[in-house]
């Protein structure tokens, strides 16, 4: 998650780059019989504040965290390209946003190559163990409690983030993994400043963190919550990054680091006397060795003369954003009143979520009609369900993208299943015109809650993104667990081109609200004429084929809520939806970086100024 953090002991971005020699490990505290991996210092360095928007000609980085953005800027300043800077930023987020992302998780990487004018993607989603069946989360024929599943070895999928970094750098980068890990390694060694959000996130997880000695040793230094303004260090993670830098990602997928992960999953290291039932997982060394980050074609749709590219399944982000945009294509959204615009936007979202629930899963094991879902023909057959004077009722039945029929009633409806809301997103551009939109995650805040002892990172709980059981046995669910299967995601990194050149790239955390955040931001910018930073900051609404739509306070307290309720919409308040970041290519060729103004403490937009 984003936090209002100032840059820490690393100082300016150029200082972050430093030399490319590994830093010697420092002593600390962690699990018993080993020095701790976290320490606190009372000094708070005086450093620059975050800013939500910046403009420069030499490249741009936008993330939720100033330290992470500075890591990416450091790589750009040293001549690295957007891919190099994206990996550097992501690695730094693994230090400063450890409850949202890290090498124990996965994500989706979308990249634009300026030379070939093409968009390419990597699916770095975690996978279930090859021994997993549809009954992964069932006991005695019934689903286990969701909270029990989260904090367990059962929820931990094979991490995809290290493989994603390695594949991106080998395919499209200009620097080695060791070079781009350097800023994050220094950050882990030197520490970052604890702010109120980090402390609160720790407090929210305190009870389960205390049940795992390695987790408590890292995030509860001295047995207490971290103090706001103190410096949190993670020398264990610095050593782990150093190992990846020197040995490559094989250290995780076929080495000692991987063996430590497997041991932790199969025998979760719970403290003596803990009453929590922590089920072991089934991940094996063979599962790690078999893992691959998958290169695949992006989704693509045309919208208002623009080419909108996203991530294809196993994520539902690209297909759902594309379908909703296609539904809105024939509406002149720029001329609509706020009520009319929001009504059509919400209905387009509702329909897209009805269809994704029926059709989107891991394409390696499910027949996913991606081309149909992103086609204008299918969208037109669904758009006619929308009426300006009455809201649709959820759960709405899905349509059939293989055989579109105008306003067809569709199959039986099933409700949208729960998806955790914690993730992080970064967006990068370089001086050559290359762009990256990258969203990475360990699932919910704090992931599984289990730190790999002596390694300095949390393991994911991504397998809880599977449906534990069909929401309705009468409706086919493509997102049930399976051997080696990737759970469906809502991650939606998006790059928009005009005539083959980048216009905007963006993404957001937020679980299933990622799709609606990206969609609403695109519509705000391209249809409603908002500058990108204002399109990101505007109050959000999220309809996900549910009986009620979530509204942020800016819309909840607005007269438009009552106007929409008058035509059948029902609402509940959500204090905060998403935390987007983006970059924009300005007409004069400069890059604009944009981030949140307020949400989750505000984001960090940084640019390189060429002399």
TrEMBL record:
One Gene Ontology biological process: glutathione biosynthetic process
Pathway: Sulfur metabolism; glutathione metabolism
One Pfam family this sequence matches: G_glu_transpept
One Gene Ontology molecular-function label: glutathione hydrolase activity
Enzyme active site: 423 (nucleophile)
Gene3D superfamilies documented for this protein: 1.10.246.130, 3.60.20.40
Binding-site list for L-glutamate: 125, 465, 489-490, 511
Protein name, entry field: Glutathione hydrolase proenzyme
Species in which this protein is naturally found: Streptomyces caniferus
Lineage start: Bacteria, Bacillati, Actinomycetota, Actinomycetes, Kitasatosporales
Gene: ggt
């Amino acid at each position: 998650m984003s936090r209002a953090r100032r840059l820490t002991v690393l100082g300016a971005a150029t200082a972050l780059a430093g030399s490319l020699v590994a830093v010697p490990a420092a002593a600390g505290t962690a699990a018993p019989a080993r020095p701790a991996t976290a320490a606190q210092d009372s000094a708070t360095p005086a450093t620059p504040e975050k800013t939500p928007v910046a403009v420069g000609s030499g490249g741009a980085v936008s993330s939720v965290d100033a330290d992470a953005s500075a890591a990416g800027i450091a790589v750009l300043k040293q001549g690295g390209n957007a891919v190099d800077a994206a990996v550097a930023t992501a690695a730094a987020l693994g230090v400063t946003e450890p409850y949202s992302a890290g090498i124990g998780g996965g994500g989706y990487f979308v990249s634009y190559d300026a030379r070939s004018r093409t968009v390419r993607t990597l699916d770095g989603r975690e996978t279930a163990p090859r021994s997993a069946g549809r009954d992964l989360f069932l006991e005695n024929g019934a689903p286990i409690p969701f909270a029990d599943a989260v904090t367990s070895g059962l929820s931990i999928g094979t991490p995809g983030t290290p493989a994603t970094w390695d594949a991106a750098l080998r395919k499209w980068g200009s620097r080695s993994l060791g070079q781009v890990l350097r800023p994050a390694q220094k950050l882990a060694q030197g520490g970052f400043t604890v702010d109120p959000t980090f402390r609160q996130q720790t407090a929210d997880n305190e009870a389960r963190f205390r049940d795992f000695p390695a987790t408590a040793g890292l995030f509860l230094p001295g047995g207490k919550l971290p103090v706001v303004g103190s410096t949190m260090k993670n020398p264990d993670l610095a050593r782990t990054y150093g190992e990846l830098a020197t040995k490559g990602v094989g250290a995780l997928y076929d080495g000692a680091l991987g063996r430590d992960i497997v041991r932790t999953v199969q025998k979760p290291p719970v403290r003596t006397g803990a009453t929590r039932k922590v089920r072991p997982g089934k991940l094996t060394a063979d599962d790690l060795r078999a893992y691959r980050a998958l290169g695949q074609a992006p989704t693509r749709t045309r919208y208002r003369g623009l080419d909108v590219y996203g991530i294809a399944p196993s994520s539902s982000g690209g297909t759902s954003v594309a379908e909703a945009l296609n539904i809105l294509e024939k509406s002149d959204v720029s001329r609509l009143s706020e009520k009319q615009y929001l009504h059509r936007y919400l209905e387009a979202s509702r329909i897209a979520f009805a269809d994704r629930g029926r059709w989107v899963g891991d394409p390696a094991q499910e027949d996913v009609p991606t081309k149909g879902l992103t086609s204008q023909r299918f969208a037109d057959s669904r758009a006619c369900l929308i009426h300006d004077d009455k809201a649709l009722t959820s759960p709405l039945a899905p349509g059939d993208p293989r055989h579109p029929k105008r306003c067809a009633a569709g199959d039986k409806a099933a409700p949208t299943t729960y998806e955790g809301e914690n993730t992080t997103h970064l967006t990068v551009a370089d001086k050559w015109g290359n762009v990256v939109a990258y969203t990475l995650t360990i699932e919910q805040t704090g992931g599984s809650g289990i730190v790999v002892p002596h390694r300095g990172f949390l393991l994911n709980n991504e397998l809880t993104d599977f449906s534990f059981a069909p929401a309705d046995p009468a409706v086919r669910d493509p997102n049930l667990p399976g051997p080696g299967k990737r759970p469906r995601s809502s991650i939606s990194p998006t790059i928009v081109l005009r005539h083959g050149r980048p216009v905007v790239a963006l993404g957001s955390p937020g679980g299933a609200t990622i799709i609606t955040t990206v969609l609403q931001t695109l519509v705000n910018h391209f249809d409603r004429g908002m500058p990108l930073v204002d399109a990101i900051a505007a109050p959000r609404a999220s309809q996900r084929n549910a009986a009620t739509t979530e509204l942020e306070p800016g819309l909840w307290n607005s007269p438009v809520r009552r106007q929409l309720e008058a035509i059948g919409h029902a609402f509940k308040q959500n204090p905060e939806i998403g935390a987007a970041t983006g970059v924009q290519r300005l007409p004069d060729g400069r890059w604009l970086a944009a981030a949140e103004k307020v949400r989750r403490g505000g984001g960090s937009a940084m640019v390189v100024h060429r002399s």
